[in-house]
Amino acid sequence: MRRLRMAEENEMQLQDMEALDQLMPMNLHVSETGHITHAGPTVQKIFGDASLEGMRFLEVFEVRRPGGVNSVTALQKATGRVLHLTFRHDPAGRFKALAVGAGDGKDLIVNMSFGISVIEAVQNYNLTSADFEPTNLAVEMLFLVEAKTAVLDELRQLNGRLEGARVVAEAQATTDMLTGLGNRRGMDLKLADLMERNERFGLMHIDLDYFKDVNDTLGHAAGDHVLKIVAKILRDETREGDMVARAGGDEFVLLFPRLTNTERLNDIAHRIIAKLEQPIEFEGETCRISGSVGTTVSDFYKSPTAERMLADADVALYASKHKGRAQATVWSEHLAAATQAEMANAPPSRETRH
């Protein structure tokens, strides 16, 4: 009979513990010796694989506040007060708790919570709403946080897509679609940037020779093919930070930041001309072109402007054409005066530049 009553009492205690686990999944039952005799499912999940049952409460937890709670007796005297706890093995695990007497008053039931660190705890310990009692307001807060996080993530993704679209649109607006080089707008923006930063640079204007003959005899498809080959040559003969732009039909402008040595620029120009004069094959036909180059550098001017430098490079380009094409000329004051006088006497037609 006695055994039956003990079995019934044990069954009732078990049912009580199960009910307590549902009401307070972060509860601990601490005996009068300070040993944990039962741990709720959430606090056990947080602690890890090792069972809390049988361990000493004060060896698992440090009571940070109130001070002086370093014995079972002191813990029993702290009943009814808010306890600030941390795991001894993991100080990042911070809890608030309330201990109340159980049974004859010597045992304790400790109800734990996360307080304001609940969001961090959920992330650190992979907790879900099932790890909290249904009436815990923290669950509602977590739902709100999750909703806010989802909205913010969506906004970040949207902003990312918009920024990507903006970058693509800007790239398209400054890129020549046939050759992949910069276009006139891209060139103007680069020039403005160089001027704004007062950076020294060289400017080279290239006009293709005999390109009109390719279009007239072999058609615009051949001309487009030649322009793509020219674009590759110009990219290959310039540095990574240089600007290569298609400024017009068969005209190109090259910008060389931090390069104003005219000898080096002339070497680049002659290499480009040599590459341009190599035959270009297109559908069994051979396309032959060349190039004339006019160059100026920002060092030539006290206060350089994009308009002045482009005009002077064009003057130097005219001189190269006049010398028989496939030439490279650097602008100078003397050249400008001579060209102006010559143009005044016999202004060339636009066709002579091809």
Task: Please explain how this structure is put together.
This protein is α+β, with helices and mostly antiparallel strands and 354 residues long. The protein has 3 domains: 2-135, Haem NO binding associated domain (Beta-Lactamase, 2-Layer Sandwich); 140-173; 178-353, 2-Layer Sandwich (Alpha-Beta Plaits), CATH 3.30.70.270. Helix content is 47%, strand content 20%. It is built from 12 helices and 13 strands. The protein has helices at 2-23, 41-47, 57-60, 72-77, 118-125, 137-173, 184-196, 211-218, 220-236, 262-276, 306-322, 333-345; strands at 27-30, 36-39, 61-65, 82-87, 94-102, 107-113, 201-209, 243-246, 251-257, 280-282, 285-287, 290-297, 328-330. The strands form 3 sheets. Strands 2-1-6-5-4-3 form a 6-stranded antiparallel sheet, with helices on both faces. It has a 5-stranded mixed sheet with strand order 8-9-7-12-13, with helices on both faces. Helix 11 (306-322) links the parallel strand 12 (290-297) and strand 13. The longest helix is centred in the middle third of the chain and has 37 residues, at 137-173. The radius of gyration is 41 Å and the shape is rod-shaped. 28% of the residues are buried. Residues 349-354 have low confidence and may be disordered.
